[in-house]
Design a protein that fits this description.
Blueprint (H helix, E strand, L loop, with lengths): L3 E9 L3 H7 L8 E8 L6 H7 L4 E3 L5 H11 L4 E5 L10 H9 L4 E5 L10 H22 L11 E4 H7 L8 H11 L4 E5 L14 H18 L4
Parallel strand pairs: 1-2, 1-4, 2-3, 5-7
Antiparallel strand pairs: 4-6, 5-6
Length: 229
């Protein structure tokens, strides 16, 4: 069986419940390279990966942004896709996101806000989704974009393009900064619709107010630095 050229980076921090529920749906045998980046899991996540023969890169510094940077440094392939096995992200779209890069795009994003998309828990996400779309529109206006979801972390990107963007933010700001800098550089960006599932076990560590304040800081920082990054 021919494998899709690309590195699948699985991001975890105590995600044993999600892994048990969806691992068999993750196309680990259909990509040329796969490994996990784990931040100090204590719930059996590491043992699960060992049983499944998935290489684990230990993350010492906390934060999603650091995990992205580690992922690109360790990726063997030029095409890289990031996936969190928490139930929100649809593993069936891992291969399509990588295929977008083969088709000539620099970055591809699984959008929760295209016409064919659906976000988790419509009642809860109404407020969070409004904020996400508002920040996306701000980025579109300031940097001449046409994105529908600049914030979703379920995305693929060419390794050399990631390094060119040189993201220096921390935490959950990584996706927004990547989107903004990609717009600045006029990268070719593809969005595909996604159906966001319900989170499996635990709670998201992204706090709405704190994340919103982080996004505002990123906007101000990106206005200041221009293309000098």
């Amino acid at each position: 069986m021919n494998k899709q050229n690309g590195t699948l980076v699985i991001l975890t921090r105590n995600e044993i419940n999600g892994l048990k529920a969806i691992f068999d749906k993750i196309p680990v045998d259909k990509v040329s390279d796969v490994f996990a980046i784990d931040y100090k899991s204590t719930d059996g996540t590491l043992e699960f990966f060992k049983k499944k023969h998935i290489k684990v890169v230990q993350q010492e510094k906390k934060g999603r942004a650091e995990a992205f940077r580690i992922g690109c440094r360790n990726a063997k392939s030029e095409n890289v896709v990031f996936f969190s096995p928490d139930g929100n992200e649809d593993p069936r779209q891992i291969i399509p996101l990588l295929e977008c890069l083969d088709d000539g795009y620099d970055m591809a994003i699984a959008s929760r806000f295209m016409k064919e998309s659906k976000a988790e828990d419509e009642g809860v996400i109404a407020v969070r989704g409004f904020g996400n779309q508002a920040f996306t529109q701000i980025a579109n206006v300031l940097w001449r974009g046409k994105l529908t979801d600049s914030i979703n972390g379920f995305r693929s990107i060419k390794k050399k393009k990631f390094l060119e963007l040189n993201p220096d933010t921390e935490g959950f700001g990584i996706e927004y900064q990547l989107s903004i800098r990609a717009l600045k550089k006029r990268f070719k960006i593809k969005e595909i619709p996604t159906v966001e599932g319900n989170r499996i076990g635990g709670q998201s560590t992204a706090k709405t107010f704190d994340t919103g304040m982080l996004f505002l800081k990123i906007i101000m920082h990106e206005l200041k630095v221009g293309k000098k990054f």
